[in-house]
UniProtKB/TrEMBL annotation:
GO molecular function: fructose-bisphosphate aldolase activity
Keywords noted in UniProt: Glycolysis, Lyase
Record's protein name: Fructose-bisphosphate aldolase
Family listed: Belongs to the class I fructose-bisphosphate aldolase family.
Origin organism lineage: Bacteria, Pseudomonadati, Pseudomonadota, Alphaproteobacteria, Hyphomicrobiales
GO biological processes: glycolytic process
SUPFAM superfamilies the record matches: Aldolase
Length: 334
């Protein structure tokens, strides 16, 4: 492993004013997004939509450091035959790849999930590297509810994240380590903090046990937020203060960068929260975005599957990317 090179890529992924576009929706998830805008999820439509994003020159060269791709997309070519990966590289951004294979029910732990995809991962990573991927993503999912999460779920998911991260580094690919604590429940923000801290602590413990080099990875955590169904919703200042405290408690300073997931926050909340955490300042790591929904909801709506709407879709994407770029520097205003 060339750690200096991994560190260089990790720092480029979280360079000032830039963040990641998570465009790695699985077949099922992209179908859900397309259903919402009345577009059939065909291979060509998925290609056209993603090509529209990757050809958004201003967004891709000024605000986006890298793109997380799904397996289908990394092998796809644009309409004119150029590999989509090349479009990303030509804009000056780094191609990345989601390598987990989704979640499965965790035996003996009703309602809990474990992420699959370790089988043959070394072979898959080598192919993705040859195609141009320089970083990867693996998402673990932890739900909060009555009696959950169990220590079993936290532990097996942390173990898998560390297995994945070690395999990535051996393949000269920067792992994005994503232990997502869901915001779907009716819990308050303090319960989110308590669970997220447990999850982060266990994840870093496993990373150490499996000798993952922290200088060669990116953390993709959830922010400290109230559950969506909670009667009390924490405001922006509280989210920022508790998010920063939670990260300071759990994330070693040697991690080169942190890129948040949006996790179902509204576009504007995701931007406002990122801006507020960055206004606190004085932290050992850059804090930026690795947003899926919060970057793509607006362009999906503007595009709605029509070639005529490509400029409007690109404009909507560029606007969200610009706002999140400003927020990553604590310079966003409404
Ligand atoms: P969201 O920002 O929509 O949560 O997606 C980010 C992601 O990559 C989840 O794995």
């Amino acid at each position: 492993m060339n750690l200096a090179e991994l560190n260089k890529i990790a720092r480029a992924m979280t360079a000032p004013g830039k963040g990641l576009l998570a465009a790695d929706e699985s077949g099922g998830t992209i179908k859900k997004r397309f259903d919402a805008i009345g577009v059939e999820s065909t291979e060509d439509n998925r290609r056209d939509y993603r090509e529209m994003l990757f050809r958004s020159r201003e967004a891709m060269s000024s605000y986006i450091s890298g793109v997380i791709l799904y397996d289908e997309t990394i092998w796809q070519n644009a309409k004119d035959g150029t590999p989509l990966v090349r479009l990303i590289e030509e804009a000056g951004a780094i191609p990345g790849i989601k390598v987990d294979e989704g979640t499965q029910a965790l035996p003996n732990c009703p309602g809990e999930l474990v992420t699959a995809g370790l089988d043959k991962l070394a072979e898959r990573l080598a192919k993705y590297y040859a195609r141009g991927a320089r970083f990867a993503k693996w998402r673990a999912v932890i739900d909060i509810g009555a009696g959950i999460p169990s220590m079993t779920a936290i532990s097996v998911n942390a173990h898998a994240l560390a297995r994945y991260a070690a395999l990535c580094q051996a393949a000269q690919i920067v792992p994005i380590v994503e232990p997502e604590v869901l915001m779907d429940g009716d819990h308050d923000i303090d319960r989110c903090v308590e669970v997220t801290q447990r999850v982060l602590n266990k994840t870093f413990q496993e990373l150490r046990v499996q000798r993952v080099a922290l200088e060669g990875m990116i953390l993709k955590p959830n922010m400290a937020v109230s559950g969506k169904k909670s009667k009390t919703q924490a405001g922006v200042a509280e989210v920022a203060e508790k998010t920063v405290r939670m990260l300071k408690n759990c994330v070693p300073a040697s991690v080169p960068g942190i890129a948040f997931l949006s996790g179902g926050q509204s576009d504007e909340d995701a931007t406002a929260h990122l801006d507020a955490v960055n206004r606190i300042g004085g932290l050992p790591w850059p804090l930026t975005f690795s947003y899926g929904r919060a970057l793509q909801a607006a362009p999906q709506k503007a595009w709605s599957g029509k070639a005529n709407n490509v400029p409007a879709g690109q404009q909507a994407f560029t606007h969200r990317a610009h706002m999140n770029s400003l927020a990553s520097k604590g310079e966003w205003t409404t």
